[in-house]
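To illustrate the input format used throughout this study, we show a single complete record. The first block contains the structure-token representation of the backbone; no residue identities are included at this stage. The design step must infer an amino acid for every position from geometry alone.
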């Protein structure tokens, strides 16, 4: 063994049988001489501890592996001389972390039902044919360049996006009461909206989100400066909408607060209000509480297969003449996940107000990301503007929606065939990419361990990740989990 390294540790570690100690003058620490592992080439290197004993820092470049050995014995985290030694390891994103675990699993039969991305019957990512055609047209256009876009993005994209969700005959568009800005998919649209509202909204700067909701909602709005509260939405007993609870909570909200509404295909539950229920919700928001609706439209056309059907709720709120905020994403319905294409629209009272709102949205965007990327929005613009491409897109979009609906029926039939305990009607009644199965954490963990099925711990599964080949495996896993572990 070569020469011994010298380290400093808090007095609470003085009982270690691995080290010899001596009191350091005027310090609440002891000097330990390590006798159990070889020193580095730099002997007698001092290693200091923060007063609270939570982290080490090397004063002389001792190898990280040597410090780590000491830390393991003392239960203390270690780092080198860094201004960021205090930074804690963040947990994996609960959804994206599923893919990390899935990728580490060597089992060839593994199935990823966690992340919300469409897959083909063969389990492969899908690029729509219409998207490939649009890209080829863009590449063939030699007049195109890679210059910066304006702060609000491609004007045609903004115009066409508003028409897609609000309808080409929308009175608010005709009256120039709609301002639309290109943003970074749904997340970016929500964040820009949150920061604008935090600065400029004249009502209560509180947003009510459904319980449960997409996990990112609970991060986007507080970080954007808007306090977040919840309203009841999902009824675990019926696995449907808790309509009475939702109405009661909205009535209890302070007048002028903001309320987040999923336009269709609620994530994670797949539970949407009926048109009659939507009308009741609208009356409470508009007539009783004067709340500001903020719609998140991530699945237009992807839920029912019809662009107009999936925009119905949004249009009811816009057509009543009230103000609305609206976030759109083209990740799902055009498969442009990685292109980050979205839009934020504000429907306000007066063209002059819309002009001023747009000017302030620019001030939010400019220091955030300056201007949006071109390619994905150019694809969307071309598809929405070209009649033939638009019609082809609608056919492909309905094909994706129909395949997901087929997966629901196949899974329901497979569970019925196995006589799986419980009522599984909710698999058919829910809509869109996700099914909220009602499985608990213990059951989900069992399915992952025994059947290599990867899904969120709250029991949400992505129907878009299923195929006719994997439905039997999932049905077997659910059946076994339910039989072995009560919910």
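Output of the design step:
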């Amino acid at each position: 063994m070569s020469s011994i390294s010298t380290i400093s540790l808090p007095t609470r570690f003085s009982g270690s049988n691995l080290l010899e100690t001596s009191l350091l003058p005027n310090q609440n620490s002891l000097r330990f001489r390590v006798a159990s592992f070889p020193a580095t080439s730099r002997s007698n290197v001092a290693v200091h501890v923060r007063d609270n004993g939570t982290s080490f820092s090397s004063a002389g470049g001792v190898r990280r592996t040597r410090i780590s050995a000491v830390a393991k014995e003392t239960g203390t985290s270690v780092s080198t001389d860094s201004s960021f030694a205090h930074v804690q390891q963040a947990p994996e994103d609960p959804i994206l972390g599923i893919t990390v675990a899935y990728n580490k699993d060597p089992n060839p039969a593994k199935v990823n039902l966690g992340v919300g991305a469409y897959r083909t019957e063969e389990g492969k990512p899908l690029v729509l044919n219409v998207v490939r055609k649009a890209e080829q047209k863009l590449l063939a256009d030699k007049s195109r360049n890679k210059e910066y876009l304006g702060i609000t993005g491609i004007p045609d994209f903004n115009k066409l996006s508003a028409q897609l969700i609000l309808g080409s005959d929308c009175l608010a568009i005709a009256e120039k009461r709609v301002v639309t800005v290109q943003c970074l998919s749904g997340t970016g649209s929500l964040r820009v909206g949150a920061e604008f509202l935090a600065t400029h909204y004249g009502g209560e700067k509180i947003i009510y989100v459904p319980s449960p909701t997409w996990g990112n909602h609970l991060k986007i709005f507080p970080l954007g400066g808007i306090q977040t509260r919840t309203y009841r939405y999902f009824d675990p007993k019926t696995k449907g909408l808790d309509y009475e609870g939702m109405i009661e909570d909205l009535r209890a909200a302070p007048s002028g607060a903001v309320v987040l509404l999923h336009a269709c295909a609620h994530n994670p539950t797949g539970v949407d209000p009926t048109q009659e229920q939507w009308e009741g919700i609208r009356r409470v928001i508009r007539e009783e509480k004067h709340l500001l609706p903020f719609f998140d439209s991530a699945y237009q056309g992807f839920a029912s297969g019809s662009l107009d059907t999936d925009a119905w709720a949004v249009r009811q709120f816009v057509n009543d003449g009230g103000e609305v905020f609206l976030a759109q994403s083209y990740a799902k319905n055009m498969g442009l996940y990685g292109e980050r294409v979205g839009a934020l629209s504000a429907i306000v009272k007066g063209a002059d107000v819309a002009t001023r709102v747009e000017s302030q949205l620019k001030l939010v965007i400019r220091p955030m990301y300056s201007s949006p990327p071109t390619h994905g929005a150019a694809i969307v613009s071309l598809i929405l503007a070209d009649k033939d491409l638009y019609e082809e897109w609608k056919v492909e979009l309905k094909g994706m929606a129909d395949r997901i609906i087929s997966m629901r029926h196949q899974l329901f039939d497979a569970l019925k065939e196995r006589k799986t305990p419980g009522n599984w009607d909710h698999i058919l009644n829910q809509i869109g990419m996700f099914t909220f199965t009602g499985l608990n954490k213990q059951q989900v963990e069992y399915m992952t361990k025994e059947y290599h099925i990867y899904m969120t711990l709250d029991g949400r599964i992505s129907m878009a990740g299923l195929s006719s080949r994997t439905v039997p495996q999932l049905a077997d896993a659910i059946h076994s989990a339910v039989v072995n572990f009560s919910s």
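Structural context for interpreting the output: The chain has 17 helices and 18 strands. Residues 6-74 form one domain.
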